[in-house]
Fold these 3 entries.
Entry 1:
Amino acid sequence: MKNKFRHHHRTVRIENQDGRFTIQGMGKWYHHWRDPYHLLLTVPWIGFVGIVSIAYLLLNALFALAYLAGGDGLEGAQPGSFSDAFFFSVQTLASIGYGAIHPKTFYANSIVTIESIAGLLLIAVLTGLAFARFSRPIAKVLFSQFIIVANQNSQPTLMFRVANERHNFILEATAQMYLIIDEVTDEGVFMRRFHELKLLRQRTPSLVLTWTIMHPIYLDSPLYGLTADDLKQRHANISVLVSGVDETVAYNITARYVYDTANILFEHRFDDIIYTSKNGDRYFDYDRFHQVQPIESGDGG
């Protein structure tokens, strides 16, 4: 019975919702509190501050109870006063030391010693966590909402576009694209397969504004001959990775995006986001970055 219970809570559900491939229960088999370091690095800042504040208050409350357990050991404090013991703990843990309250017994001095060591360790850990959060490279790469399949130079091509939201240089930017799809082997074994899609241009020296990434659908392409219905029935996803070096901080950055079948459009084209003024200057209209239009018969792609 115990094994069945554990197995039940390690189950991950995969479902298809209107063409959107989703995974339910990814976090149930592994509780966040089993990896507190990762939790404190990935939780939003408001959550980080909240967790640290609650832990700080609980730690001071614990030491306040420890002081009270030793009887009247704090000079200047009301005997048995939790608030006095609590605020003395705050002063000790933060090395403030106003001097209005101080230990007067061996027991109280022993607790102060233990709390001082705990304060040093706490400050060291929180400083490291805060620095790691601030220094963690975060990519500001914008992916088009849709990925389209249309003719490009008379060749069926899978296309999407990305933009550098910071408008600085992402040096040696590279892109990778993978088709994730359900397949059944010749032996009848179901598999979730990953196929790398070869790109027309996988690398650019610098990504400053926008980049349209293309995969020509040749005979050897895993997408060759597949329709929108085929992709939907086989729960297909297209996973994209864009990486490079942020020139400002000289850190490697990586951005990931996944397109489900609801966002893969056949026989559509992107709106042009570049226009030229009368004096010859070129402008990028990012308000049209995600906009697509169906290709009417006779447009020629």
Entry 2:
Amino acid sequence: MKKFLPAGLQQKMIALIGMVFFFNSAFSQGVGIGTSTPHASAQLDISSSNKGTLITTMTSAQRKAIADPATGLLVYDINKKTIYMFDGISWLPFLFSNADKNPAQLISPVNVSSGDFFAYKVSISNDYAIVGAYNKLVGVLGGGFENRGAAYIFFRNNGVWQQQASLLASDGAADDYFGASVAISGSYALVGAWGDDVGADANQGSAYVFNREGSSWTQMAKLTAADGAADDYFGHSAAISGNTIIVGAYGDNIGANINQGSAYIYTLSGSSWTFRAKLTASDGGVDDRFGNSVSVSGSYVIAGAYLDDIGANADQGSVYSFYELTNAAGWTTAQAYHQKILAADGEADDYFGVSVSAWGSGLAVGASGDDIGANTSQGSAYLFYRSPIGVQNWTLPEKITANDGVANDNFGICVSRTQLFTVVGAYRSDAGVGLLNSGAVYVYNSSGSAVTFKTKIDDDTAETNGYFGFTTGVSGYEIIIGAYGKNNDRGQIGFKNIE
């Protein structure tokens, strides 16, 4: 038996089918709103002389809470004042507001794993940067892996940072901690491996120099201390500038003083790096940890002794400045320090000297344990200036703190100084409720007569124990920031232009 639709319903069905055909045809040609001639390349062309297009707006927390976002999804983040796009893996800042015109470019290399601690240390020089991953698992002959460590070179190509090379020690072994310190200058890269066993001396430590030719990096030299001993931790810190290298050995026993610490200077002679001098503090004591941090600028070498006891203040910390031409012959083993630098308001457990960075006539010193008011270990940093005349001492100290700092931020755990800027990390700063030790970085203008705050850089994908800002570097207007705790200790870096 045939069944027929009522006449009225038949007409409605015919109309509906007609609409379907119309819309299929219209969308195949493009739909115009406010225009009768949509562009042939556009599926939807919107035109107006007095109205704009408003995309979905939400808070940062709401954006990050979207379940399984589609690749290409766009939202406007009202907290960041920025349009974000999901690229299939993470949220990327798609457009930039005046408040933050280019958020950090975050990079997580695909060949690092949980526990590698990628970005434990970073350094930057113009268009090149180096990143250490001291616990990186490296494949060994015969199969299997060992946590030997690695370092990665990044290159800025047309404004975009890309990985260029990965560096390994030619003679690496398990627990060498290759990448626990890194430095880069010009075509040279320096990588410390403080856990390297040298002969029978466990953890004596070493440092490796790599040279760039074109886009290729090759190992040029391995540096060790001729007088090294077990647990010296040579390579715990490292710095390079031009033709001068300094390597810290903060576990070095000086006479009867256990862990007093030392630093070694090497200079480039032709194509060879040659040992020049071993620096120590003539007034050093047990557990000073001299050489925990080092920096070099021109003829000046800076070494921090963050556990130095000053008077009755245990672990107040200090910094030593050495000047090459204190001796007419230049760098000489056991030469006198040029100046011992202290914080005038220092107290016990300030850890003044936990980080140092010298640039020209400017010096930045971190004191991550400094109590600010009632805030225990909020942390601080001190800026010093070197007079170009007379004895050329580091003077006119200026103390900076985070205006929004709280207890245990550890502001000053790292410092980076250039002619224009001072960058300070606060790796245990909290991003909000439930996000502990996510970290933050503070940038200051320091080219004028007074230091002024410029900007605070937060981790847009903050995690508990991410430690964003444990290490930083600055070159020109470009900043690199390490967060070795991100992604279950896999680690992550961020590049940020602050022009």
Entry 3:
Amino acid sequence: MKKEELNFAKNDNFTLTMIPGSFAKKMRTCLIWQAIRFMVINIKMLVVVSKSH
């Protein structure tokens, strides 16, 4: 079993919450990636709002 597959395996207290892998943790803490995501989300919101007005 791969290290990442352990995130989906049943554990002792069996919760349905997934544990993020190493790649997801790095992306969540990378400030450059967060800035890019922020800009993309804001552009999407501007498109939606502009369509309604």
